[in-house]
Design goal:
By secondary structure, this protein is mainly alpha-helical. The chain has helices at about 5-20, 25-30, 30-45, 55-85, 85-100, 105-130, 145-190, 200-230, 235-245, 255-265, 295-325, and strands at about 270, 275, 280, 285. The radius of gyration is 20 Å and the shape is globular. One of its GO terms (molecular function) is threonine-phosphate decarboxylase activity.
Length: about 325
């Protein structure tokens, strides 16, 4: 019944917003991402042979992706089946488990740390904090670059760290959310265009692009909706930036929430970026100012909190509607 995964999603969003993933739990048993990551690392070590041809490594990567999805997906399905047999208590337990697949609180905390780092520790404090959430070379960033990097990370991770797992939880219940998280973790670990992972990680990267398509569009719309509720933001400019710039981003998905956030705040995001010693040329998202600062991070966080609230409201509305239609 459609109402059940939507009810699960609504409760999971509420639980995660309230308590996040407690540090004590992480220290005691780790996190689903770390468990999935251990599986991915083992498959990468055993199947990704450097003496194999690119074609063979691509096939090995495809087989690895199947295993990465099958193992946690089967476990999640078994857990959901067991919990479904114990009624409301089972739904509540499933919601607590599903909340670990979302990252509303932790994303807010990490981005707020960049704002605080800039205000309390200057450029070096901001660089250190932003290095925790982005892969680019922090030494190449000035204060405006640090601020833009934090806001870009907030926008992109709102899509793939919150809206996407929420979408797949609402569609497929606990197994749907776990399958998404497994695929997204695989992309983050092996979906890079490096000599080691160009071929082996091809399937993981392409699959992650595919499953993030609906969420990236929904995330952009939620940011537009949030901008309409804030006097310091512009929903019209957010929508214009999406239409003009989102498709120009080097990622088929990241440009949508980044363009929305840039337009809403009157900023320019993305553009050329440096990862290690490599400079990546990319289009700018938005046509505002590039000189972002800690106050802009504050404004972005306010939009983010409202967008998360809109996501919760949408989930609850769909759950109630599905329940009413099922009667």
């Amino acid at each position: 019944m459609l109402a059940e995964p939507l009810a699960l999603l609504t409760l999971a969003l509420m639980v995660e917003a309230a308590i996040g993933y407690p540090r004590r739990v992480y220290n005691a048993i780790g996190h689903p991402v770390t468990w999935i990551g251990a599986l991915i690392a083992a498959l990468d070590r055993d199947l990704n042979r450097e003496d194999a041809s690119p074609a063979a490594r691509r096939i090995a990567g495809f087989l690895a992706l199947i295993a990465i999805l099958a193992v946690p997906g089967a476990l999640a399905l078994a857990v959901q089946t067991i919990l479904a047999g114990i009624g409301l208590v089972g739904l509540l337990v499933a919601a607590v488990l599903a909340s670990s697949l979302l990252a509303q609180r932790s994303l807010h905390e990490h981005v707020a740390a960049v704002r605080d780092g800039l205000r309390e520790g200057g450029l070096e404090g901001g660089r250190w904090a932003v290095s925790m959430i982005v892969g680019r070379n922090p030494e190449s960033l000035d204060a405006a670059g640090v601020s833009r990097a934090a806001i870009e990370s907030l926008a992109e991770n709102f899509s793939d760290g919150i809206v996407a797992p929420a979408f797949w939880l609402g569609v497929g219940g606990l197994p749907g959310g776990v399958l998404y998280k497994a695929a997204n973790t695989a992309d983050s670990m092996i979906g890079h265009r490096t000599p080691r992972h160009e071929a082996f990680g091809w399937a993981a990267a392409r699959f992650d692009d595919l499953i993030n398509l609906p969420a990236s569009r929904l995330a952009a719309l939620l940011i537009v909706g949030a901008a309409a509720l804030h006097p310091h933001a512009s929903a019209g400019k957010a929508w214009s930036a999406i239409r003009r710039d989102a498709g120009k981003h080097r990622s088929p998905n990241a440009g949508w929430p980044e363009a929305a956030m840039a337009g809403a705040l009157g900023l320019r995001l993305a553009g050329p970026r440096t990862y290690g010693d490599t400079t990546v040329e990319d289009h700018w998202m938005g046509d505002g100012r590039a000189e972002a600062d800690a106050a802009d991070i504050d404004r972005a966080l306010a939009l983010y909190r409202t967008a998360c609230g809109l996501l919760l409201g949408l989930a609850a509305l769909l759950a109630v509607t599905a329940l009413a239609l099922s009667r």
